[in-house]
Amino acid sequence: MINLIFILILILEICFLMTNIINYFQSSIWTIVSFIMVTIIILIPLLSFLSYSFFTVDNVEIIHEFSLYNFKEFLTGEIYIPTFFRTLLLALIVMIACMITGYPIAYFLAMYAHRSKYFILLILIIPLFMSYIIKIYMMRSILGYSGLINKLLMMFGIISEPSEFFLYNQNAVIITLIIILLPLIIIPTFTSLEKIPRNIVEATYDIGCKPFQSFRYVIFPISLPGLIVGAVFVFILALGDFVTPQLVGGTSGFTYGKIIYSNFGMAFNWPFGTALASILLIVSVLIILLTNYLTRKN
Amino acid sequence: MSSILELQNISKNYGSSVVLKDINLSIENNEFFTILGSSGSGKSTLIRIIGGFVKPSSGDLIFNNKVINEEPIFKRPFNTVFQDYALFPNMNVYNNIGFGLKIRKLDPKTITDKVEEVLSIVGLNDFKKRMPHELSGGQQQRVALARAIVCEPKVILLDEPLGALDAELRKQMQLFLKDIQKKIKTTFIFITHDQEEAIFLSDRIAVLNNHQFEQVGSPKDLYYKPKSKYLASFFGECNLIDGTVDNINNDIITIDTAIGKINIKNKYTNISQKQKITFAIRPEQIFLNQKKDNNSFSTNVDRVEFKGAVTNIILDFQKNIKIKVQINNAEEQIAINENDQFNIYFDPNFGNLFLND
């Protein structure tokens, strides 16, 4: 069965490829080469992976027969859809928080930091080069029961005993994701703000804009595509994340990503995990297409 | 005519490097005033000071008898046409032009009327829905101009607006600018490095050289009565002949030069015997083939440059002196060939003398 699907996919691919070869016949050989590369490296593995979502599992044995059981399970199971929407909400909160904090940072960096802006930007994006796990552990030591925040709050007498508000719950997941994903929104926003010629900013004042009007009608609209790109990055990554909830989320902070993870790990139910993953993938792609459509319309 | 804008002792320096030094200027209402200078002469800084983008290091900017040094950009009744247009990329042509009015909170009906009117002045009615990146350079230029004039500013500042256009379009836009200025009756302050453009467009020109004004005057003043040797050759072509004053009569000065003695009308008060001077005369002020006793010189033709309407003839007087003569080609050119013997005549009424230090 699996072989059959593979062959089917390959045939489809070859047909697709042939039409493309005919279409691009006048264009260079590189178009075809790049198309073959994309097919081999991305499309075939992805499709063969997704084909698993139509299989079922019986006592750690994968049954290679077409079935919609996994999708039925997703729709009827008690936890899946609520968790999915809770995770969407979480990703939305993280995204909005990142937009609200990231935009001003990018703005002041691009507009007022002058010569030191690239240096500051570098410092801000260094965490991107660090291991993801290390960053989460770092957050743990900051947010934890005897972590930095609790110690500081106690030192200033705001709380009398360590608060459990910051670790092993949904708040911890949100705070950690915001901190980790923030650079991803700063970079594209900074780039789009920095590209605005000084002339255009001057022209807004020249035409009679007060500083806020200049921002509201010209600077912000021009930088919006960059902010949206960053926001989509953050949203998609927050939506699919499973390590953060694993390490700082505790029992109340589990997310959709963590369910997928546990299906591949502990439960050893690859087909169901794949089905959940493909639903996530489809939603993510839809979000990207939607934002793409919206930004292009503007 | 009354002065609308005055610059008093405006100086600007960045650290120790001087950009502008004691600029004094009075610009009259509704005139087309050009600030002309080569690149790096500080002309852009000057217009940016007027616009409010740069603060002068010292001196006062006076608009309608009021010092406006501290007035923020958005309060000044000036609008700028930027060198690279600086159209708002997120707005179409219509909104770009209407933006200034929207900010001023005019009612939508008035905005529509005014924008439509300006659109027809600049001839872009069919393009109002286009985005700036969908327009050619010349069209963007017109939008930038429309955006500036729609706010009905008292002064329009144009910072080398034609710099990025090709020669043909540039000529069209020059005509267009001149027409518009007549139509809307507003003061234009124009910046350029192109002398021809300045002469063609301006009511008055100020030449900026070495951080200061070399001369301020009408195009004709600058062309026929340049105040310095630099200006004489800056505006159009000019033959410069060094010499010493040989004799001064009441109305004739005789100068002794390497090509011989030349007599010129005396219109100077500061010239005395034996002074070292330079005689400057334009190629079209020298006449060919006129045999007169005085002021006639004869030599070989070094080169003949046929240019269509005119022909330039370069005469070789040895000792490194070459004189360019321009003749009008109204009739078909009389044959002049290289190495022909030729006679030229300096009319005493033409040419200028400059003192040499």
Written account of the structure:
The complex is a heterodimer of chains A (298) and B (357). Chain A has 298 residues and is mostly helical. Chain A folds into two domains: 2-54, no CATH class; 74-297, MetI-like fold (Orthogonal Bundle), CATH 1.10.3720. Chain A has helices at 2-23, 29-50, 69-76, 80-112, 117-129, 132-143, 148-155, 170-194, 198-207, 211-240, 243-248, 256-264, 270-297, and strands at residues 56-58, 61-63. Chain A is flat, with a radius of gyration of 24 Å. By secondary structure, chain B is of the alpha+beta class. Chain B has two domains: 3-229, Rossmann fold, CATH 3.40.50; 237-355, Nucleic acid-binding proteins (OB fold (Dihydrolipoamide Acetyltransferase, E2P)). In chain B, the strands form four sheets. Chain B has a six-stranded mixed β-sheet with strand order 6-7-8-3-9-10, with helices on both faces. The mean pLDDT of chain B is 86. The chains are: A mainly alpha (298), B alpha+beta (357). The interface between A and B is medium-sized, with 18 and 23 residues.
Measured between the Cα atoms of the first and last residue of chain A, the distance is 47 Å
User: How would you sum up the global shape of chain B?
Assistant: elongated
Low-confidence spans of chain A:
none
Radius of gyration of chain A, in angstroms, nearest whole number: 24 Å
- In CATH terms, the superfamily of the largest domain in chain A is MetI-like
What is the class of the largest domain in chain B in the CATH system?
A: Alpha Beta
Q: Could you please say which CATH topology of the largest domain in chain B applies here?
A: Rossmann fold
| Count of individual helical segments of chain A | 13
CATH architecture tag of the largest domain in chain B: 3-Layer(aba) Sandwich
Order of helices and strands of chain A: HHEEHHHHHHHHHHH
* Biggest sheet architecture of chain B: 6 strands, mixed
